[in-house]
Design a protein that fits this description.
- This protein is mostly helical.
- Helix content is about 45%, strand content about 10%.
- The strands form 2 sheets. It has a two-stranded antiparallel sheet.
- The radius of gyration is 16 Å and the shape is globular.
- It starts with a helix and ends in a 19-residue tail after the last helix.
- The model has no long low-confidence stretch (mean pLDDT about 90).
């Protein structure tokens, strides 16, 4: 049922997000050059890796994220438009519209068994942690919200999260943790 809902919602809204995808892609190309997309392996359902697709928001290089994040990139992250290409991950079945956000592969070995439960469902474009504080949350609280979602997931909860996500994006709250470009490194048990 959830998979059918994801596909239907993405296809029905394509007239809105496809033009946005093209406009943002052009803006990234003009501002940052190539590549326009940022592709990174992330853990999905069961911790199995998949290739997450986002718009690039940082300059190439090895400096800290905060220094490489561009003005356009900051705006794309604030509006969540950098996430638009993940709709293709949803169509391919690697992600869902709602679920715990996919983090980094290197975090897998750092999770407690309880934290690892976040991988019992497909990762999502948005989730319970995102509508309850996004990156302003500490890791412990973020994982608690993710596991709560795993235990309480339903169509109605997904609809509530999607609705609240719209308000979160417009409010631009919790975009980054204090002193970080997005979220600090998860180093292990919290």
């Amino acid at each position: 049922m959830k998979r059918l809902f994801d596909i239907t919602a993405v296809v029905v809204t394509a007239a809105v997000w496809l033009p946005l995808l093209l406009i943002v892609g052009l803006a990234v190309r003009l501002a940052l050059g190539r590549p326009v997309l940022f592709v990174q392996e992330r853990p999905g359902l069961g911790g199995r890796p998949f290739r997450l697709i986002k718009f690039r928001t940082m300059r190439e290089g090895s400096g800290p994220d905060a220094e490489r994040l561009t003005r356009l990139g900051r705006w794309l992250r604030a509006t969540s438009l950098d996430e638009l290409p993940e709709l293709f991950n949803v169509l391919r079945g690697e992600m869902s519209l709602v679920g715990p956000r996919p983090l980094l592969m290197r975090y897998l070995e750092r999770y407690t068994p309880e934290q690892a439960r976040r991988h019992e469902v497909r990762p999502g474009l948005t989730g319970w942690a995102q509508v309850n504080g996004r990156n302003a949350l500490g890791w412990e609280q973020k994982f608690a919200y993710d596991v709560w979602y795993v235990d309480h997931r339903s169509v109605w909860l997904d609809l509530k999260i999607l609705w609240l996500t719209v308000w979160q994006v417009f409010a631009r709250k919790g975009i980054c943790a204090a002193g970080e470009a997005t979220m600090g490194e998860f180093t292990g048990k919290t």
